[in-house]
């Protein structure tokens, strides 16, 4: 999973005025049959019917997940289920008792024939910033927009019977002929109004979302892997075809970087673009599955920003094929959807994955050294602002509770830096011949999809596959409370700390905006009663002014992301004209751009004697 936080600053403007389970031969003749009706949507709810298998007990429990793999939060999907009823073969109601938010007990279970219930979607309930305590992360959520779009994350629609999760699932989805389902599953129904999907167990069903919308997809093949890009864009602004060249370039580079570690034959990217209205998704980012990534981003993003965000999040999710989807602990192998136990090794599942998502780009020539060092420097800065003495393994194992929950975002910062340091240690000890990718190859061969490791044995295994120094690092800095001396490890590859003068954005300072919007008129307004930077003073742009156009390009709430993005291309002393409305009168202000600057920590390669090791680190 990766959340996108680049939107938080702009969002403050807008609102400011999986698991893998072992195979089973249990009762192969039995199956759980599911019918999902996307045709007859009432009150924004979808009817789900479960045809139950046979039971030998008088009472059984049906559950909707509390949590799903990759999300690291208690989400309680059962709160979106209404009017759950159970029937026998004659249509008589059976007694149902709700045990908690996510579970229902059914008596006289030997006679159980069907269960029915209504499903609400999660996108309608997001609070406005997408990261509220009760919000479900949008890529793990559900959408019901009758006749237009359905985001079917299966865990939001389909549950499981206790002790029956290893039964096959047959899911039939009735849908309008105008909608097409993008997924990595194979449709067993040849008609245009019904899809049938079969999975050998519940765990695999949960890992296979389907997005229904007007058909907009592309397919291509990379090194034997069939890839599908499916897009839902409410206005049609973005098409699958428009982003496919960049996705193909990126995924080709990833496959080359990974080598033989990846054996997935089909992979899908499902992109949902949000209007950002009150009833639409606002938790931006992506969620991984073994053969699918679901992505949610704002539709109003400029094309280059959208592509950049797609590269960052899709590359991160794609690398989850390595871990935890191939290399994982018992806690993930035997994931409990309603009483989950967390693994100690988020540093690997999310951290090493995030490190790979950046390393492969410099390795494959998609970014240069300066950009790579800038990203690493930024991660060091972010990590240093978190609790740097909290043992990472302790945080990971307790990530669902405070105070550890608040430190979760550090998996993308310190977690990635842990991966970097281990990579450098292995490179140094092997004279540049091997790195952390080699370690992941070995762990993949040792374990793999169907064989899990024990949490408390992983460090010893890694040490045996690498060097004692790696084990010492893990003990001292990952399970221990000692802050990592990043500069010492970077010095091994000739990279040292430096500072640089960096131009900032004229509309945002960090997460603090200089502008706001009027949601009714969609006008962009310079915030009154704040101290404005020289950019505003130099052209006499004042608090309360309404920005109509800049350099003859019109701007409003509908394309505010374009304005932010366009401003990042401005240079010092560029000529600029700003059409505004002040006190009801339109006027045009002219002048030159004055950018804000700040000193920023950075990194650069200064020790040329370490070039050989540095090059093997970045390009090996």
Secondary structure category: alpha+beta
Show unreliable segments. 12-28, 129-133
Assign an overall shape.
globular
What share of residues are in beta strands? 25-35%
> Taking strands numbered 1, 2, ... along the chain, how are they ordered across the largest sheet?
6-5-9-3-2-13-15
**N- to C-terminal separation?**
27 Å
Radius of gyration over C-alpha positions, nearest whole angstrom? 26 Å
Largest sheet: 7 strands, mixed
Mean pLDDT: 92
Count of runs of 4 or more consecutive helical residues: 16
Percent range of helical residues: 25-40%
**Total E-strand runs:** 31
Describe this entry's structure for a reader.
This protein is an alpha+beta fold and 620 residues long. 27% of the residues lie in helices and 27% in strands. It has 16 helices and 31 strands. The strands form seven sheets. A seven-stranded mixed β-sheet has the order 6-5-9-3-2-13-15. A hairpin with a 2-residue loop joins strand 7 (96-100) and strand 8 (103-107). The chain is globular and about 80 Å long. The model is unreliable at 12-28 and 129-133 (pLDDT under 50).
Describe, in short, the structure shown:
This protein has 620 residues and is α+β, with helices and mostly antiparallel strands.
Write the layout of secondary structure elements.
Blueprint: E1 2-3, H1 7-14, E2 32-42, E3 45-51, E4 59-63, E5 81-88, E6 93-94, E7 96-100, E8 103-107, E9 112-120, E10 143-145, E11 149-152, E12 160-161, E13 169-174, E14 180-182, E15 194-199, H2 202-206, E16 210-213, E17 217-222, E18 225-232, H3 240-258, E19 266-274, E20 285-288, E21 292-298, H4 303-319, H5 330-333, H6 346-363, H7 369-384, H8 392-397, H9 414-429, H10 436-446, H11 458-465, H12 468-478, H13 486-491, E22 495-503, E23 508-509, E24 512-513, E25 515-518, E26 523-526, H14 534-538, E27 546-550, E28 553-554, H15 560-567, E29 575-582, E30 585-592, E31 597-605, H16 611-619
Parallel strand pairs: 2-13, 18-19, 19-21
Antiparallel strand pairs: 1-20, 2-3, 3-9, 4-8, 4-12, 5-6, 5-9, 7-8, 10-11, 11-16, 13-15, 14-16, 17-18, 20-21, 22-31, 23-24, 25-26, 26-27, 27-28, 27-29, 29-30
